[in-house]
C-alpha cells in the first residue's frame, strides 16, 4: 500500500493577496502563488481566490462545540503550545478561543484557536504537560 506523505487543506478566500499576507506574516507559513506551508507541510493550505465572497464558507460549530474549527493542528507539549500562542498573538493573530485546559481520563488537553481574514478557524492543541 502506498504511503501518503502529507496533506493540505484547500481554502476558498475572498481576497487572495490579503490571505497570503496573513498566512505568511501571522501564521509563519512559507507562501508562494497559492501554497502556504509551515514546518515541512505539517501545516499546509492551498489558497484559491473565490469567485464570490459568498463562496467562502468556514465550518459551523458542531454539536456541543463552542468554537468551530476548520483546521486543527497538534504540537508536542503544553510548553510548545504556549510558545506558539505567544508567537501568533505577537504577530497580530485574532484569538477566538483563549488557551483552555480540559481534563480527560488519559490526562490534560490544552488548546487555543485563531481565525484568518475569512473567519476560517485554526486551532492548535497538545496533550502533554512537559
Automatic annotation (TrEMBL):
One of its GO terms (molecular function) is dioxygenase activity. Residues 5-127 form the VOC domain. It comes from the Bacteria. Gene3D superfamilies: 2,3-Dihydroxybiphenyl 1,2-Dioxygenase, domain 1. Keywords: Dioxygenase, Oxidoreductase. InterPro entries: Glyas_Bleomycin-R_OHBP_Dase, Glyas_Fos-R_dOase_dom, VOC_core. The keyword Electron transport does not apply. This is Glyoxalase/bleomycin resistance protein/dioxygenase. It comes from Paenibacillus vortex V453.
Amino acid at each position: 500500500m502506498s504511503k501518503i506523505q502529507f496533506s493540505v487543506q484547500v481554502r476558498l478566500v475572498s481576497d487572495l493577496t490579503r490571505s497570503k499576507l496573513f498566512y505568511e506574516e501571522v501564521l509563519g507559513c512559507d507562501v508562494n502563488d497559492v501554497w502556504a506551508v509551515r514546518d515541512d507541510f505539517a501545516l499546509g493550505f492551498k489558497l484559491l481566490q473565490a469567485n464570490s465572497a459568498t463562496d467562502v464558507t468556514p465550518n459551523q460549530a458542531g454539536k456541543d462545540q463552542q468554537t468551530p474549527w476548520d483546521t486543527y493542528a497538534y504540537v508536542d507539549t503544553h510548553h510548545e503550545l504556549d510558545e506558539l500562542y505567544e508567537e501568533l498573538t505577537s504577530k497580530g493573530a485574532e484569538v477566538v478561543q483563549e488557551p483552555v485546559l480540559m481534563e480527560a481520563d488519559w490526562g490534560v488537553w490544552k488548546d487555543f484557536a485563531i481565525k484568518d481574514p475569512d473567519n476560517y478557524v485554526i486551532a492548535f492543541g497538545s496533550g502533554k504537560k512537559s
